[in-house]
Design brief:
Helices cover about 35% and strands about 20% of the residues. The chain has about 190 residues and is of the alpha/beta class. The longest helix is centred in the first third of the chain and has 14 residues. The radius of gyration is 15 Å and the shape is globular. The two termini are about 25 Å apart.
Length: about 190
């Protein structure tokens, strides 16, 4: 299928340690598919929290460098994405455990969650780039719930530091392009656990 003419929403949530790998993968996707159209949706925490990995201004600059659109920053701005059929695919990258739990529970209290909900309403694929320190703990049930939900797919993931963080799972950025293509076909890229 390819990604050349795809309209892809990218929902950034606050797993800041993965931003470097996510943006590097998106840069590579854009280089190989210059016709891809990214629209960024930033969670409230991404918009306002400085952290040891990046500042909000740096994140805005990276997103604006990959998109012809202003980032979406609020629930009212995110709501029309689904009903107006503005995206072919929505990717939550990275997806924190908090966001994962809210998706599984149907909670829509921020721009990324609103974009995801609106997108799913149209029966279109939602791809999750998981990054959670409690994925094999309290959030494991939410992974199971979402794996069994229509139109929701995962970028293959694995334990990033099993000795120090035995419950932590992180998606593998190198699988993001293939996972996007598979989700657009309505398929889960296999194997999920890598």
């Amino acid at each position: 299928m390819g990604l050349e003419r795809i309209r892809a929403g990218i929902g950034l949530t606050g797993s800041f340690c993965t931003f470097k790998s996510v943006f590097e993968s998106l840069d590579e996707i854009k280089t190989k598919n210059p016709g891809i159209d990214f629209t960024f949706v930033l969670s409230d925490n991404v918009q306002r929290l400085p952290n040891r990995f990046c500042t909000p201004a740096e994140t805005f600059a990276r997103a604006e460098g990959l998109s012809a659109h202003e980032p979406i920053l609020s629930i009212p701005e995110a709501e029309p994405l689904g009903p107006k059929n503005l995206l072919d695919l929505f990717v939550v990258a990275p997806c924190t455990g908090n966001t994962l739990a809210k998706l599984a529970a149907g909670i829509t209290d921020g721009p990324v969650l609103m974009a995801a909900k609106g997108h799913l309403r149209g029966g279109k694929p939602l791809l999750i780039f998981l990054s959670s320190n409690d994925a094999l703990g309290l959030n494991l049930k939410n992974i199971g719930t979402l794996l069994n939900s229509k139109h929701i797919f995962f970028v293959p993931f694995g334990q990033d530091a099993p000795g120090q963080k035995p419950n932590s799972l992180v998606a593998k950025a190198e699988f993001l392009p293939a996972a996007m293509e598979a989700a657009l076909r309505g398929e889960q890229l296999q194997p999920i656990l890598v």
